[in-house]
UniProtKB/TrEMBL annotation:
InterPro entries: Peptidase_M50. GO terms for biological process: proteolysis. This is Zn-dependent protease. It holds the Pfam family Peptidase_M50. It is found in: Membrane. One of its GO terms (cellular component) is membrane. The chain crosses the membrane at residues 41-66, 108-129, 141-164, 184-213, 233-256.
């Protein structure tokens, strides 16, 4: 019961932290349907359900929805009242704002809160799966699946490769502690990901590597003129990044060990 109590406390703290962004001041905004994206999302869901099983497919969709809502809530807290959530299954939680974050602190907060918000439901799902096992083994199993899927997906998302959230966080941190090395590190992240893609024969990873390298040429001037993190902020941001990545690694370890 202590684990369940701790998970409930964590969920309460997360809701309190994001209280300013849970609901939009503009109400519900419908931004239309992306037919192509919807089709890709459905295909991705079907592929996940076929390869991992139906429970995993549902868990992936729920996890991505929560992850993307974390980005949207963080945008709103940072003053982006226009931030919207467009739902496309699996692929289509897309956080949209008409303005770029004004500071690197805002950018880091917005980026990390996608994986960050998932810590609470992951912990709660683990705790509840143990509590309700004697009463409903099926429900307990789904909660366990949701927890390991959430951990694995968000740990992958926090790997230091652009354009994943982890790559964005690391780029901000490098720009804080070693500004002259930002582009070099970004190129290094892309090269490492490309090497991993070749070793694993993964076209998807290779595509991510190309996107990362392309960011060197398409990076907007707004980045250069934004207020950077201070050194104390950088230390706090680094600690938050490492803690979040470590927690998701622990939460998704079962799935990571099974399929990697």
């Amino acid at each position: 019961m202590f684990v369940l109590f701790a998970a409930i406390v964590l969920c309460t703290l997360m809701v309190y932290t994001l209280r300013g962004g849970m609901v939009s001041n503009r109400g519900l905004t419908v931004v239309g349907m992306d037919i192509q994206g919807l089709g890709m999302g459905v295909l991705a869901f079907v592929a996940a359900a076929w390869y991992f099983g139906p429970l995993y497919g549902v868990a992936i969709v729920l996890s991505v929805m929560i992850h993307e809502f974390g980005h949207v809530a963080a945008y709103r807290i940072a003053g982006h009242d226009d931030a919207r959530f467009r739902l496309i299954p699996l692929m289509g939680g897309v956080a949209i704002s008409d303005r770029a974050p004004e500071t690197q602190a805002h950018d880091f907060f917005i980026t990390l809160m996608g994986p960050g918000i998932c810590l609470a439901p992951m912990a709660l799902a683990y705790a509840l799966s143990e509590v309700i096992t004697p009463y409903s083994a099926e429900a307990a199993h789904f909660l366990w699946v949701f927890a390991i899927v959430t951990g694995a997906l968000n740990f992958f998302n926090l790997l230091p490769f652009w354009p994943l959230d982890g790559g964005r966080c690391v780029r901000i941190l490098i720009d804080t502690f070693a500004p002259g090395a930002t582009n070099f590190v970004t190129l290094g992240m892309s090269a490492a990901l490309a090497a991993a893609a070749v070793a694993m024969h993964s076209m998807a990873l290779f595509f991510f590597a190309i996107l990362g390298a392309q960011s060197l040429f398409s990076w907007s001037e707004a980045w250069v003129h934004r207020t950077p993190l201070t050194k104390p902020q950088g230390v706090l941001a680094l600690a938050a990044y490492l803690f979040t990545a470590g927690a998701h690694f622990w939460g998704g370890l079962t799935m990571l060990m099974r399929y990697l």
